[in-house]
Amino acid sequence: MSGPVISSLLETDLYKFTMWQALFNSAYNDNEAEYRFVCRRPPAMPLAALKLAVVREVEHLCSLTFQEDELDYLRSLRYMKSGFVDFLSIFRLQRRFLSIETRGDALEIVARGPQVHVMFFEIFVLAIVGELHARRFPREQALLEGRRRLAEKIERLRGFEREAGVLLAEQPFSIFDYGLRRRFSAAWHEEVVQTLTAELPQFFKGSSNVYLAKKHGLTPIGTMAHEYLQTFQAVRDVPLRNFQKAALDAWVQTYRGDLGIALTDVVGMEAFLRDFDLFDAKLFDGLRHDSGDPVEWGEKALAHYAKLRIDARTKRLVFSDSLTVEKSIALWRHFSQRAQTGFGIGTHLSNDFGPAYPALEIVMKLVRCNDRPVAKLSDSPGKTICDDETFLAYLRSVFNVAG
């Protein structure tokens, strides 16, 4: 019988800790929030059938606490504050804040309560649902195919290294594991990370999974996600038009130069750049792409830096939207002579087993904060998330974004 999906509270993405800390140490640590689970495409098998297993896994999750060696590890990260880590030493997820129901074949999961508590459920819930779904496939067959595909990726990257040659010395190619939220299983995720660490240390530079980063001596990777910026759409004393500036300013005040990659697509790249002035462009180390055409996005970023008379070669463009090895190589070839680059690869590493074993396309997103709707106006069709059409129309009008 398989063990629990989650065995450590460290087994989440780094940006859950960094966003959590930024809000915990802010004037907005009393926010109330609602996060909702969404499956964007029909799954191979009805998720409603997983309800009892999900409940068991969540009850186990809510029994976990941070261990002393885990707290010591977090303290070793220079951007983690001692007061926040002391709070984590007494923290435990509370089951009462999470609703798990079914509607027809669908699984409905909602986290509702204090934001500095319920925001921590997200990655765990996604990993739990994803692995329970994957356990219904023939495991050994899937793993054989997964290992074959992983070997192909490694061989492709070795071939790329031969092709790129001396260019890599001046223009490094760096990939990171961003695959926790939609992985096939915890065991496979670790196998992938171990294999890439051993086989491609020249390219593989870290993982968003804090547990695996600690266990395997890797750099934990991540800064902020959409929920952090969306929160500022609904907090007191921040006009909606100013939410991006307020979020970035609060981030800078918390991290003082660390974790300097800004996410750009909460209301679209063009609206973001209108707020990303010389002050922010100099303070932040770079930008992260997560929706829309990556080449178009990158060209807009470079043009913006040029307009501000900033040498983009001192900045980093991080790509993280549905990346594959081949896409990453192509983007490196396009941009690496004009800016530093980085590539966060998710499902293509942690859940690529071919069409016979499809990965779930699941998210768990912030939909309300302080009893007000929040939204993401994505640069990609189908990624816009909001449960209030009136607010969505208002947000578009405020930022002059077409519907």
UniProtKB/TrEMBL annotation:
This enzyme's EC code(s): 6.3.4.21
Gene behind this chain? Answer: pncB
Tell me a Gene Ontology molecular-function term this record carries: nicotinate phosphoribosyltransferase activity
Q: Where is the Nicotinate/nicotinamide phosphoribosyltransferase domain?
A: 173-401
Task: Output the superkingdom of the source species.
Answer: Bacteria
**Biological function:** Catalyzes the synthesis of beta-nicotinate D-ribonucleotide from nicotinate and 5-phospho-D-ribose 1-phosphate at the expense of ATP.
**Database matches in InterPro entries:** N/Namide_PRibTrfase, NAPRTase_N, Nic_PRibTrfase, Nic_PRibTrfase-Fam, Nicotinate_pribotase-like_C
Q: Which residues carry this modification: Phosphohistidine?
A: 226
The root-end lineage is: Bacteria, Pseudomonadati, Pseudomonadota, Betaproteobacteria, Burkholderiales
Protein's name in the database: Nicotinate phosphoribosyltransferase
Which species is this record about?
A: Roseateles oligotrophus
Looking up HAMAP family in the UniProt record yields:
NAPRTase (MF_00570)
